[in-house]
């Protein structure tokens, strides 16, 4: 299948999930993340979930990061530049949903991509070689291309890997890991 078909398939599958199932699967994903050797790093980029899109609930991961006293960086979408601007999450950070219902920081302390050590990447689907399918706007591929070369890229998925995608592009940046409720994939 191509990316368009897979995007449609996984959006449809996610929309059928109940709030309870999303919470249970998201907790399993967070628990599986603890198996990775990533916790010595300092700056962790974490997307805030779009509830309306039934994304993996990253609140459990946020609690892990805060419990380990890590610096959590959250993105804001710059629609005009087709880019992500990253801000340090603090006790005073104000969060507001944008036009796509993405919870984002209103403002704050900006963190440059070269400071970030680990990125938790949203996705709809991924394959066995670490390629991912997002919503198709390219925000994360552009962001990841501006990060340091040894950044750790971790996808989060309710579903297991597809064999391969038909239409992978040179600008697509593969993941290092993808974590599902059942397992951790390493690429």
UniProtKB/TrEMBL annotation:
Top enzyme class? ligase
> What protein family is recorded?
Belongs to the 5-formyltetrahydrofolate cyclo-ligase family.
Gene3D superfamilies, sorted: NagB/RpiA/CoA transferase-like (3.40.50.10420)
Give the organism the record lists.
Answer: Zunongwangia endophytica
Which reaction(s) are listed as its catalytic activity? (6S)-5-formyl-5,6,7,8-tetrahydrofolate + ATP = (6R)-5,10-methenyltetrahydrofolate + ADP + phosphate
UniProt cross-references to SUPFAM superfamilies, sorted A to Z: NagB/RpiA/CoA transferase-like
- Cofactors named for this entry: Mg(2+)
Q: What name goes with this protein?
A: 5-formyltetrahydrofolate cyclo-ligase
Give the keywords, sorted.
ATP-binding, Ligase, Magnesium, Metal-binding, Nucleotide-binding
List the PANTHER family.
ATPASE INHIBITOR/5-FORMYLTETRAHYDROFOLATE CYCLO-LIGASE (PTHR23407), CHROMOSOME UNDETERMINED SCAFFOLD_24, WHOLE GENOME SHOTGUN SEQUENCE (PTHR23407:SF11)
Gene Ontology molecular function: 5-formyltetrahydrofolate cyclo-ligase activity
- Under Enzyme Commission nomenclature, its number is 6.3.3.2
């Amino acid at each position: 299948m191509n990316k368009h078909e897979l995007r449609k398939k996984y959006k449809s599958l996610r929309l059928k999930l109940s709030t309870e199932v999303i919470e249970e699967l998201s907790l399993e994903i967070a628990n599986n993340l603890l198996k990775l050797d990533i916790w010595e790093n300092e700056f962790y980029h974490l997307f805030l979930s779009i509830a309306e899109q039934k994304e993996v609930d990253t609140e459990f991961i946020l609690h892990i990061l805060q419990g380990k006293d890590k610096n959590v960086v959250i993105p804001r979408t710059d629609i005009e530049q087709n880019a992500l601007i990253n801000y340090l999450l603090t006790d005073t950070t104000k969060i507001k949903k944008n036009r796509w219902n993405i919870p984002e920081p209103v403002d704050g302390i900006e963190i440059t991509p070269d400071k970030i050590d680990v990125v938790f990447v949203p996705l709809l689907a991924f394959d066995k070689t670490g390629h991912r399918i997002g919503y198709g706007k390219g925000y994360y591929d552009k962001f990841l291309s501006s990060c340091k070369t040894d950044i750790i890229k971790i996808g989060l998925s309710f579903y297991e890997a597809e064999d391969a995608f038909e239409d992978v592009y040179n600008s697509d940046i593969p993941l290092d890991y993808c974590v599902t409720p059942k397992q951790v994939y390493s690429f």
